[in-house]
Design a protein that fits this description.
- It is built from 5 helices and 11 strands.
- The two termini are 21 Å apart.
- The chain has a 9-stranded mixed beta sheet, sandwiched between helices. The chain has a two-stranded antiparallel ribbon with strand order 4-5.
- By secondary structure, it is of the alpha/beta class.
Amino acid sequence: MNTRNRRFYRRIGSGIRKPLFLEDVVMRGGTHTGLVLAGGQSRRFGRDKSTYVVEGRRMIDRVVSAVRPLVLDVMISVAEKGQAPEGLTGRVVTDAVPGLGPLGGIRSGLSETHTPWLLVVACDMPYVTTDALGGLIKACDPGLHAVVATDDDGRRHPLCACFHRSVLRRIDEQVAASELSLHGLLDRLAVREVRLPSEVLRNVNRPRDLT
């Protein structure tokens, strides 16, 4: 499939959509660090889904490969020491505060990053591509706190998003108030939405999700 002229959409203001062509995507490797979230317990999957093989490669390897060309460095977020799958190339970041779920992983990533932006992708999104993530990178402008992917139905996917380093303070405020919702966090931020194909954003919670 020729992806050169594939079109993604950036939502601006109240529903106006501006097309983004792949040849116009700027690879801002010096402004972003990648964070692949791999700290979940995979209860519904029945085993560590990050290492489940999809089309010949582990899910987490597929995600890391999609992220790496866009960023200065890739971090792997885990809930506790020893949880990271073997064979990964990337700095492992352990949740500093346990029990916060994905919000805790993003918090730890923002605490560790040395770049203005953090590109966050869950390890159970094996169909995400570098081209699609480039649309998020391209949309990161001054004055924004986050750039989040939305699917064909307009649903936000906060685990495929870019967060500015300044969001760390907002997360700490939310944690102090025992509010752990990522959607609640986004509601408090200046957010730009980028439309991506639903297939790219498909996450895998159970083995049957791959059929």
